[in-house]
Recover the amino acids of this structure.
């Protein structure tokens, strides 16, 4: 299938090219030329995750991957489950945090890594990315041990939690991590300078692995199907499902809209944000007015200019999906009281999932609400423990890396130094 640039519609590329390129000309996002409605939804829902995902993704990668190549990629990428857990009669959570870095980003990052390696044709690729926490871990683990791919991750020294740091700096092998003496913005500026240096980019096969890559979105479509498949097995009414999606850059919501456009029975979506509420305000007023980003306890959603929004907007405006998105913004106090409320229902959650659960509040009685659990509560141990006043256990993945030494090197926020490092 071809993918076209939403800003420069003449630019049309294959799936392989879209994966390798990331962004199109003029920073435009790639979008599939068609989203094929599937006519065998019931049959698909009866399949296991990997087999179903191959069928869901096949139309998008046709021409670039055979079914058996796609099956290998999906098998390697989705080697952990997505789980529906009931909260009460009207609510369930879709837990997406059972991957190696305990966050939903594992789905997209692992699928992208496998695709990129497949399309690399044995050319050397350098993934350069800046992280303030979660993305770095998902990217590092997704690319760990893959041939011909070198990963360099920059992060602000001393500005992320020790546990977060340990999740991506202790791997070694093809994963190199650099603690930059500066802020996250300094790290991002260094990444941008590297991409702007065309000779450098060419010499080392520079690639970013960020969340606008179409392969990451497509991977995420698969767990919406998995959620509905599990609800069906539990004999839930499938016509009335509402998904609440804790949103930052809106990749997760975009994937949900793809699933709906493909015919998955989903009634509507609630786009749940923290106080960084550009989208809920836009949906209410029609005015796009980002404000200064505010730091919150659901920090993976501290985004005021979400980079996937043009895809959502395109799908709604062009009628690919009906008008099925409402926005709800949840403040810090509500987030914390919701963590407490959920724990009284017997469920330990973390700030992002709590924002989504709270945002479901306005569901009708005949609707069934599913909120996405995007991270394991132990990843937000400090805030969860202080909110609940009780300790929470570290899962094995975190406990294992907590004891390992950090392998990072230190560097000042200096492009020439980084360039020399990258070229060595
Ligand atoms: C990245 C992230 C989000 C936001 O997802 P988007 O696709 O950017 O909207 C939500 N929760 C957690 C824990 C995340 O890491």
């Amino acid at each position: 299938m071809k993918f076209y640039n939403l800003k420069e519609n003449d630019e049309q590329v294959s799936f392989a090219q879209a994966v390798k390129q990331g962004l199109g000309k003029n920073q435009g996002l790639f979008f599939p030329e068609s989203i094929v409605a599937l006519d065998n939804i019931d049959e698909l829902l009866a399949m296991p995750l990997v087999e179903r995902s191959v069928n869901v993704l096949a139309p998008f990668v046709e021409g670039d991957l055979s079914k058996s190549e796609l099956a290998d990629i999906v098998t390697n990428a989705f080697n952990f489950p997505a789980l529906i857990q009931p909260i009460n009669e009207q609510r369930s959570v879709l837990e997406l945090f059972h991957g190696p870095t305990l966050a939903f980003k594992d789905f997209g990052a692992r699928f992208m890594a496998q695709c990129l390696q497949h399309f690399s044709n044995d050319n050397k690729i350098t993934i350069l990315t800046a992280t303030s926490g979660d993305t770095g871990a998902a990217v590092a683990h997704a690319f760990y041990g893959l041939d011909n791919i070198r990963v360099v991750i920059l992060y602000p020294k001393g500005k992320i939690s020790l546990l977060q740091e340990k999740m991506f700096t202790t791997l070694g092998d093809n994963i190199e991590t650099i603690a930059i003496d500066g802020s996250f913005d300094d790290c991002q500026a260094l990444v941008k300078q590297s991409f702007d240096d065309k000779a450098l980019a060419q010499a080392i096969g520079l690639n970013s692995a960020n969340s606008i890559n179409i392969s990451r979105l497509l991977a995420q479509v698969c767990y919406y199907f998995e959620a509905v498949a599990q609800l069906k097995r539990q004999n839930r009414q499938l016509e009335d499902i509402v998904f609440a999606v804790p949103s930052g850059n809106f990749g997760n919501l975009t994937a949900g809209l793809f699933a709906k456009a493909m015919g998955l029975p989903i009634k509507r979506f609630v786009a749940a944000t923290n106080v960084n509420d550009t989208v809920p305000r836009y949906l209410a007023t029609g005015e796009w007015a980002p404000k200064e980003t505010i730091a919150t306890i659901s920090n993976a959603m501290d985004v005021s200019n979400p980079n996937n929004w043009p895809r959502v907007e395109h799908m709604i405006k062009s009628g690919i999906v009906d008008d099925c998105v409402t926005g709800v913004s949840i403040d810090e106090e509500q987030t914390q009281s919701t963590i407490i409320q959920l724990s009284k229902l017997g469920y330990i959650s973390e700030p992002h999932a709590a924002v989504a659960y709270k945002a479901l509040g306005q569901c009708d009685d005949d609707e069934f609400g599913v909120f996405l659990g995007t991270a394991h509560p132990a990843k937000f141990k400090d805030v969860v423990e202080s909110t609940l006043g009780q300790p929470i256990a570290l899962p094995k993945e975190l406990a294992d890396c907590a004891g390992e030494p950090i392998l990072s090197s230190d560097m000042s926020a200096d492009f020439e130094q980084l360039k020399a490092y990258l070229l060595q």
